[in-house]
Write a structure and sequence with these properties.
- The N and C termini lie far apart (about 55 Å).
- This protein has a single domain, classed as 2-enoyl-CoA Hydratase, Chain A, domain 1 (Alpha-Beta Complex), CATH 3.90.226.
- Strand 1 and strand 2 form a beta hairpin.
- The chain has about 260 residues and is of the alpha/beta class.
- Helix 3 packs antiparallel against helix 10, helix 4 crosses helix 5 and helix 5 crosses helix 6.
Length: about 260
C-alpha cells in the first residue's frame, strides 16, 4: 500500500482534504498531487459532499513544490513538461469542481502552495499564516497557473509586486490586498473554519454550483499554455539550476548578473 500523502476527513456534508507531508512542509510531490486528483474526481460524483476544505497537516498549508523532485524532473524539457502538466490538470479540476472549495491556510503557503490555494474559491488564513509567491528567490517562475490566477485575485500591480519581490505577507497584509477573504483566530482556527463551512453546506447545492460557475474567472487556455512553456524553458537555464543548488545546499542563490545585449 502506498504512503498516504492526503488525509480525508468527512464531517457531515463537508470533506476536509489534508495535505499530509508535515515533515516536508506539505511540499507538492507527484504522489501528493496524484492523490489530490483522485480525491477530487471522487468527490465530484459524491452528492453527499457539498463543501470541500483544503488544508495542511502540521505548521504549513503548503510550502510549494518538492524542489528535490523538481530538480530531477528538470533534466529534460519533456520530463518537466509532464511534471507540471499533472499539476495543471489537478489544479484545474480543483478550480472547476462544482462545489465550494475553501483553502484554510494554517501556516506557510508559498510558491506552488500559493498557486494551489489560488485554485480554490475562497481563501481564509490563520493569524500564523505566511503567504507569498517566492519563485523569484530561486530563479524560478510560476508553473501551476499562478501567473494567471494571481492577477485576477489581487490585480496586476499587486501580483507583479509579489512576484517581482518574492515578498512573504502575514495574514493581515494578505487580507489588505484581497489575497485572502478572512483572517480567523489562530487558537480557534479549525473551529471557525468548521462554522464557516457548515453554514455553506446548509445552502442549496444547486445554487452554490450555479454561483461558482457564473463567477468563474475567464482565463484563456492559451494563458496556461504560455506559462507552462515559459516555465519549462526557464527551468532549463542557469539561474534555475543555481536556485535548485542553493535550495539543496541551504544558501542564498548567486545569480549571474551579466545581461546579454
Amino acid at each position: 500500500m502506498s504512503e498516504l500523502f492526503l488525509r480525508q476527513e468527512r464531517e457531515g456534508a463537508v470533506l476536509r482534504l489534508v495535505l499530509n507531508r508535515p515533515d516536508d512542509m506539505n511540499a507538492l510531490s507527484s504522489g501528493l498531487v496524484r492523490e489530490l486528483g483522485a480525491a477530487l474526481e471522487a468527490v465530484e460524483h459524491d452528492p453527499g459532499v457539498r463543501v470541500v476544505v483544503l488544508t495542511g497537516a502540521g505548521k504549513a498549508f503548503c510550502a510549494g513544490a518538492d524542489l528535490k523532485e523538481a530538480r530531477i524532473a528538470s533534466v529534460e524539457p519533456e520530463r518537466m513538461t509532464a511534471w507540471l502538466s499533472e499539476w495543471r490538470q489537478v489544479f484545474r479540476r480543483l478550480e472547476e469542481l462544482p462545489k465550494p472549495v475553501i483553502a484554510a491556510i494554517n501556516g506557510l503557503a508559498l510558491a506552488g502552495g500559493l498557486e494551489l490555494a489560488l485554485a480554490c474559491d475562497v481563501l481564509v488564513a490563520s493569524r500564523a499564516a505566511k503567504i507569498g509567491d517566492v519563485h523569484i528567490r530561486y530563479g524560478l517562475v510560476p508553473g501551476g497557473g499562478g501567473s494567471q490566477r494571481l492577477p485576477i485575485a489581487v490585480g496586476s500591480r499587486w501580483a507583479r509586486w509579489l512576484m517581482y519581490t518574492g515578498a512573504i505577507l502575514d495574514a493581515e497584509q494578505a487580507l489588505h490586498i484581497g489575497l485572502v477573504q478572512a483572517v480567523l483566530d489562530g487558537d480557534g482556527f479549525e473551529d471557525e473554519v468548521r462554522e464557516l463551512t457548515a453554514t455553506m453546506a446548509a445552502r442549496s447545492a444547486a445554487a452554490l454550483a450555479f454561483m461558482k460557475r457564473m463567477t468563474a474567472p475567464a482565463i484563456p487556455e492559451s494563458g496556461y499554455d504560455r506559462e507552462l512553456a515559459g516555465s519549462v524553458e526557464l527551468v532549463m537555464g542557469p539561474d534555475a539550476r543555481e536556485g535548485f543548488a542553493a535550495f539543496v545546499e541551504k544558501r542564498e542563490p548567486r545569480f549571474n548578473q551579466n545581461v546579454s545585449p
